[in-house]
Structure formats: structure tokens, C-alpha cells
Write a structure and sequence with these properties.
Number of strands: 9
Distance between the termini: 26 Å
Radius of gyration: 19 Å
Order of helices and strands: EEEHEEEEHEE
């Protein structure tokens, strides 16, 4: 049985993923204002817990405590002091639990990743 591997957030200090996208406390199609957060971790929690949208990036402003989520997968980080940003890594990575890898290989029990019965391409795309 295959399962979706847990995703992780890559966090960056002094980088702004919403530079020239966010404007005060307003939202647009690309960037959603998530409210005020006392820390980057709280901002990230708000973004993850928001079921209305899927965010690919978050940004937290330390001075004004504003928290933003980016819905678009394209953003351009800009170096800026007092800002923390992060982006979601590990989308669409599948994993399989195998009890004994050597024995499974010897007995042909590892057929490879299949999607709808056909062998899946294992390439990673940017």
C-alpha cells in the first residue's frame, strides 16, 4: 500500500515571499491576508489550518505581526530584514512501507510505483 509522504515547510529568515504582492490587510487572488500572528510558527499554523485554501508559501512580518499565505506556486523571494517566509516542500511524493526490503526484492514483491495499473514516471519536476 502506498501513502502520501508527509510534506514539510522550508523556512527562511529575512526573506519576503509577498514583496509587491501583499498590500496591508487586503487579499487578492494570489495572496491572502491571514490576520495577525505573534510568531512565524503561529502564522504557519494559521495557514495550515485554513481549509478554505491551499497555500504554497507563507510570510510573517515581525514588526506589524501580519501573516500572509500565497496560493500561487510562483513567487519571488526578496531579501528583507524582519520578515520570515517559508514554502511547502514534498508535494506529491508517495512512499511505501516495506517490512524487509531485501526479501521483497528477491521474491518480486516490489513492482514499482503504479498509477491505474501502469508504471508511474519517477522523475521530479521543479
Amino acid at each position: 500500500a502506498y501513502s502520501l509522504q508527509a510534506s514539510q515547510w522550508m523556512n527562511y529568515t529575512d526573506y519576503n515571499n509577498v514583496f509587491d504582492i501583499a498590500s496591508g490587510t487586503t487579499s487578492n487572488d494570489q495572496c491572502i491576508y491571514l490576520g495577525m500572528a505573534n510568531s512565524y510558527d503561529e502564522c504557519l499554523r494559521i495557514a495550515v489550518d485554513t481549509s478554505q485554501y491551499t497555500f504554497y508559501s507563507v510570510t510573517w512580518y515581525e514588526i506589524v505581526l501580519h501573516c500572509y499565505g500565497v496560493r500561487d506556486i510562483h513567487w519571488a523571494p526578496v531579501k528583507q530584514a524582519g520578515v520570515m517566509s517559508g514554502h511547502w516542500e514534498g508535494r506529491n511524493i508517495w512512499a511505501a512501507q516495506v517490512a524487509n526490503t531485501a526479501a521483497a526484492l528477491l521474491h518480486g514483491e516490489m513492482p514499482g510505483l503504479r498509477v491505474n495499473g501502469k508504471r508511474a514516471i519517477r522523475a521530479r519536476y521543479p
